[in-house]
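Please describe the entry underneath.
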Amino acid sequence: MATAREELHALIDRLSDDKVITLLEQARAEVEQPRSETLSWLEQVRQLRAELSAKYGRREVSVVELLNEAREERLNDILGGL
């Protein structure tokens, strides 16, 4: 039984060069599209970060600060109920 790749190669061998080029372009577009969308999203995030930094100043919170804040809130919830 032929694998999908072998079947695909056999079919491609039967196509004209123009059809092969068209399929190749479609395959490239399909593979590169998610990367392009990710890069676009990343650029939007960077722009938003720059806008927020310009408006509020540059403030980067460390993971340790976030954990300490969460712990403090949780402790307040527990002790506040006593």
Summary: The helical segments are 4-14, 17-56, 63-80. Residues 4-80 form one domain.
